[in-house]
Write a structure and sequence with these properties.
Helix content is 32%, strand content 21%. With 268 residues, the chain is α/β, with parallel strands linked by helices.
């Protein structure tokens, strides 16, 4: 079973994270929670990077971790999640109401990844779980072995002006309407014994929600193009301002086969 569903990549796919490794990560998380937040009752994981770290998949849903158990509740693509992941307990749900009904009572403090969780998501979670406070497990994640490898600084010659777009966004990382400004980047992930994968994602600055993402074992132009093809299929009428860190893959995607797609859909 492969993490990537694209047929063309199946023969060279990322291997699923072993169940034993996923369990070891959960146990380490619990030990750190016991040390930093004694008496904790529940933690909710929804950001895709942390989700992949604990479950081996990035399908939409919420991972609810308690001292005695951990259940990954999947809202979309349940079958894909089951095929991709060796996580021990994956269950489908249509809304948080079903998950809340399973637990019966809500914890007094719900711990979330406060640096990544949006206010809308926290409100939706609170609607069904009715916890009294929101706690942060950001420091716990920092104490775990990070999924992301810190980017090495590589100094390159200045990009020719003809290939480098003007910085129109100018660090105004906020928006008051959907699909006005999208930002994109590629993150290097480490897994297994020294293997690497690359996560390409597009984020809408309105609400800071992920519009689309793709995984690959190669950091190349097809990875970027696949991500944006998904984004524009989801929002065919969108014409956002696109902003990236001007990495090599992004620059190449803006030329050649990607030129027409970006010209039709965006203000790069």
């Amino acid at each position: 079973m492969a993490v990537l569903e694209q047929t063309a990549i199946l023969t060279d796919a990322i291997r699923p994270v072993p169940a034993s490794e996923l369990e070891a990560r959960l146990e380490k998380f619990r030990r750190l929670m016991d040390e930093m937040h004694p008496g904790w009752e529940m933690a909710a994981v929804n950001h895709k990077i942390a989700m992949y770290y604990f479950t081996g998949t990035m399908q939409e849903g919420v991972l609810l971790i308690r001292p005695q158990d951990a259940i990954f509740w999947v809202r979309r693509n349940y079958e894909r999640a089951v095929n991709e992941s060796h996580f021990s307990d994956i269950r489908p749900m249509h809304s948080f109401r079903e998950a809340a009904a399973y637990y019966g009572s809500a914890p007094r403090i719900m711990y979330v990844e406060t640096k990544k969780a949006t206010l809308d998501w926290e409100r939706m979670l609170h609607k069904y779980f009715a916890f009294e406070e929101v706690g942060s497990f950001d420091a716990v994640l920092h104490g775990l072995r990070s999924v992301c490898r810190k980017k090495k600084r590589r100094y390159q010659k200045k990009t020719p002006a003809e290939y480098t777009a003007e910085n129109i966004l100018n660090r105004e990382f906020s928006s008051d309407r959907q699909n006005e400004k999208w930002v994109t980047d590629i993150t290097e992930l480490k897994y297994g014994s020294g293997s690497k994968a690359y996560l390409s994602a597009v984020l809408d600055l309105y609400g800071r929600n992920i519009v689309a993402f793709s995984l690959s074992r190669r950091n190349n132009t097809p990875l970027v193009l696949d991500t944006f093809e998904q984004a524009f299929q989801k929002y065919p009428d969108a014409k956002p301002l696109l902003h990236s860190d001007r990495g090599a893959s992004g620059r190449r995607a803006g030329r050649g086969p990607g030129r027409r797609m970006f010209a039709d859909h965006s203000n790069v």
